[in-house]
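Exercise 7. Given the encoded structure of a 197-residue chain, write a plausible sequence.
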C-alpha cells in the first residue's frame, strides 16, 4: 500500500474511537511516558499540540510542567522559496496557544526569547498516522518532522505516539523518513532503536 492509502485508512480508523475510550487511552499513554526512568533526566521536551482526533497531548504537557520540564511546541513556516519547515517555541501555560492554519493550535509567542533550539531538546514527541515496531514513521505528508529531526542532537530521544491500531507490520519509507527511537502506546513504551537500550 502507498503512503496516501495508509494515511486515509488510519484517519478513518481513528474517527471510530469513542470519546470516553479515547480519553482512557490518552491518559494511559501519558502514564507510560512518565514511568520511563530516563524521563527523570528530561529538562526540555518538544511535543505537538493535538487536534481533536489525535492522541491528546495536553495531559503530557501538564504533567511535564508539574515535573519542572520545559515544554516547547511547534509552529510551521514557509521560507522565501516556499519550503515548509517547523520551529519550536517554549510555552509555560496551555493558554499560550492560538488557532493557526487548519485550526491547528500553535504557540502565540514566536520570538527569539521563546525559540528553543533543536539541539537542546531531550525528548521529542511526534505525531503520526502509522508506525512500525522498528520505528518507521508515517506522518501527515508534509515531511515537517523528517526535516526537523535532521537538526536534533545525538542524545535526543524521539518518540512516536500511537493507538494500537496505528502500529503496523510494515510501511513504505524513503531515505528522508526519520525513524523514532520509541513507540509510546496505551500498552507501554517500546524501544525501536538500539540507541537508548
Ligand atoms: N530532510 C528533507 N529534505 C528535503 N525534503 C524532505 C526531507 N524530509 C522529507 N522531505 C520531503 O517531504 C515530503 C513529505 O515527506 P513524507 O515522508 O511523505 O511525509 P511525512 O513524513 O509527513 O509522512 C516528501 O516529498 C519528502 O521527500
Ligand atoms: Mg516522512
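Solution.
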Amino acid at each position: 500500500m502507498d503512503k496516501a492509502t495508509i494515511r486515509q485508512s488510519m484517519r478513518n480508523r481513528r474517527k471510530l474511537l469513542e470519546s470516553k475510550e479515547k480519553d482512557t487511552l490518552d491518559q494511559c499513554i501519558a502514564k507510560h511516558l512518565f514511568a520511563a526512568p530516563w524521563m527523570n533526566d528530561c529538562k526540555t521536551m518538544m511535543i505537538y499540540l493535538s487536534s481533536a482526533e489525535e492522541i491528546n497531548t495536553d495531559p503530557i504537557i501538564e504533567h511535564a510542567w508539574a515535573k519542572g520540564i520545559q515544554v516547547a511546541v511547534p509552529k510551521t513556516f514557509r521560507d522565501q522559496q516556499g519550503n515548509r519547515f517547523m520551529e519550536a517555541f517554549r510555552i509555560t501555560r496551555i493558554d499560550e496557544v492560538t488557532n493557526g492554519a487548519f485550526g491547528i493550535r500553535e504557540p502565540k509567542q514566536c520570538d527569539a526569547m521563546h525559540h528553543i533550539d533543536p539541539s537542546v531538546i531531550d525528548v521529542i514527541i511526534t505525531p503520526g498516522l502509522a508506525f512500525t515496531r522498528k520505528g518507521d514513521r508515517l506522518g501527515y505528508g508534509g515531511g515537517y518532522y523528517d526535516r526537523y529531526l535532521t537538526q536534533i542532537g545525538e542524545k535526543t530521544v524521539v518518540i512516536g505516539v500511537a493507538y494500537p491500531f496505528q502500529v503496523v507490520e510494515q510501511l513504505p519509507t524513503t531515505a528522508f523518513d526519520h525513524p523514532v527511537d520509541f513507540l509510546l502506546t496505551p500498552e507501554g513504551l517500546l524501544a525501536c532503536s538500539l540507541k537508548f537500550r
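Remark. The chain has a mean pLDDT of 96. Students should compare their own answers with the one above.
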